[in-house]
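User: Once you have settled down, look closely at the record that follows, taking as long as you need, and be ready to discuss the fold:
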Amino acid sequence: MPFRNPFSRTRPHPHPAPSDEPQEMILLTLARAEENARALTPADLAETLAFKPDPHLRRLVEQSLVRVEAEAKLALTDAGRDHALALLRRHRLAERLFTDVLGLDWARAHEEADKLEHTVTPDAERQLASQLGEPETCPHGNPIPGARGESAATSSRPLAVCAPHTRATIARIALETPAALQHLATLSLLPNIEIEIENKAPFGGPVLVRVGRARYALGHDLAARVWVDPL
């Protein structure tokens, strides 16, 4: 039986901008998943977001900003990716503003940037980037998409897939949430910190890492958010 798109009800419109904040949050969530080599279903979106995504997702599909692929996996179209990367750029520039200029901690900066990303105009974005010195990454190490929407390439990999006895430098914290960011900061697991993977439990168990003289057992989900550059 051919695959049927459950959200396709009308003819698509020619790439209008997303019309509300929930639609923008869906685009941002899909862009972050794509950045971390993940494919989400509508059920995954519902678990991640604090609202029911289906009506907003349907409009994004009708606007040709999102498409539904086999096994109900969601993917950004080229136009959807352009919108998502523009939002992601504003979010990560705002995080830099809150940490570098206003002195907020990196978890609070992420929360505040979630609000500001929807209101920054293109002119304000250009001024903000210039005043900040055109930063390349957010405070969590994630690349800030360029002025044209392109995102910097990366060769890092999740801590969860690294072999035991690997020494590495933390490159970035993916899929940021305030709780995860606060916990990682407490453990000093921050970008540019050198660590060693001492052991990994089988079947998705915890990963034992050493930071200086301290040792921590990270659950698999948390270890998957910490991307590193092996030394």
Q: What stands out?
A: Helices lie at 21-35, 42-48, 54-62, 78-101, 106-116, 122-131, 178-186, 220-225. The first strand starts at residue 66 and ends at 68.
